Amino acid sequence: MAKKILVIGSSGQIGTELVEGLRARFGNDNVVASDIKEPQVKMDGPFAMVDAMDRRGIERIIEKYGINEVYLLAALLSATAEKDPAFAWKLNMESLFIVLELAREGKLKKVYWPSSIAVFGPTTPKQGTPQHTIAEPSTVYGISKQAGEQWCAYYHKRYGVDVRSIRYPGLIGWKSTPGGGTTDYAVHIFHEALKSGTYTSFLDRGTQLPMMYMPDAIRATIDLMEAPAEKVKERTGYNLAGFSFAPEDIAAEIRRHLPAFKLSFAPDHRQAIANSWPQSIDDSAARADWGWRPQYDLKGMVEDMVLNLRRTVGQG
Ligand code: SER
């Protein structure tokens, strides 16, 4: 059977780049993008407007295009979720249940659902956080990701649903903008560095968090989905590591390209969320099970970001 993919939440930070990556690999017409809002960039290929909580609407798209794989990316992220915990829980859980149920009913062969380092909490070991460890999240986003992971594992074990997941660290890319996350500063900082030469970070000096460059995250996602089922041993979410840094570390790297760049600090409510998360991640399970290796370090990521944003935004 030909692969036909539906990406729900295709207009967001990950969706924008994942659709492009999937289309490059499997062909434009075999990847249907869908969201409740228009795409961030012009896209070649089918697009459908659908709410991730509209089961009938999703089923109609599955039938119309003969979809057999779904990547469900729609969610409220960590900072936004704290503003409306009840809605965040509803959106993040209901949308997952819809696709898990569709897979259980045999209407989908494979499901991808993103998890996050937010499944961890203040009692988790902060350095080299293991795949299996204490996970007592203190944000509604983290609670929804942790519960979702357990539902994925349950549907796999109980019903044989082939669902796969990655615990993304903060993701940094130039093709799309993030919305509502605690790690978003690491994208905003580039835009402001090029535009005004200054940036005020909403996370304080010394706030080290695990991060990853988007090309690595997209490659990991597709590689995990393409791995033979028996290699996917973790059916909650895989730890994945790129590199870790604090705001002043990324600023120092940016200064290699923009020497006059100035960083200041004005921590807000997102500081408490960042403080509850790990500082670095042990991803040996992903490496051993399906061959994950990151390609970018902090230096390589910053170089590529500055190069591409200079070209596309035409500043600096
Ligand atoms: N980067 C996300 C956020 O900050 C975590 O998954 O919300």
List bound small molecules.
Answer: serine
Mean pLDDT: 97
What is the helical fraction, as a range of percent?
40-55%
CATH topology of the largest domain: Rossmann fold
- What would CATH call the homologous superfamily of the largest domain? NAD(P)-binding Rossmann-like Domain
Strand order, sheet with most strands? 3-2-1-4-5-7
Q: Give the CATH architecture of the largest domain.
A: 3-Layer(aba) Sandwich
Q: What are the defining features of this structure?
A:
single chain; 316 residues; alpha/beta; Rossmann fold; UDP-galactose 4-epimerase, domain 1; 2 domains; 11 helices; binds serine
List the helices and strands and how they pair.
Elements: E1 5-8, H1 13-26, E2 31-35, E3 47-49, H2 55-65, E4 69-72, H3 78-83, H4 85-104, E5 110-112, E6 115-116, H5 140-159, E7 163-164, E8 166-168, E9 170-172, H6 185-195, E10 198-201, E11 209-213, H7 214-226, E12 238-239, E13 243-245, H8 247-255, E14 262-265, H9 270-275, H10 284-290, H11 298-313
Parallel strand pairs: 1-2, 1-4, 2-3, 4-5, 5-7, 6-8, 8-12, 9-11, 10-14
Antiparallel strand pairs: 11-13
Helix pairs in contact: 1-7, 4-5, 6-8
Can you put this structure into words, describing what you see?
The protein is an alpha/beta fold. The chain has 2 domains: 5-169, Rossmann fold (3-Layer(aba) Sandwich); 171-211 and 242-313, UDP-galactose 4-epimerase, domain 1 (Alpha-Beta Complex). Helices cover 42% and strands 15% of the residues. It has helices at 13-26, 55-65, 78-83, 85-104, 140-159, 185-195, 214-226, 247-255, 270-275, 284-290, 298-313; strands at 5-8, 31-35, 47-49, 69-72, 110-112, 115-116, 163-164, 166-168, 170-172, 198-201, 209-213, 238-239, 243-245, 262-265. The chain has a 6-stranded parallel sheet with strand order 3-2-1-4-5-7, with helices on both faces. A 3-stranded parallel sheet has the order 6-8-12. Helix 1 (13-26) packs across helix 7, helix 4 (85-104) runs parallel beside helix 5 and helix 6 (185-195) runs parallel beside helix 8. The mean pLDDT is 97. Serine is lined by residues 77-78, 116, 118, 168, 170, 181-183.
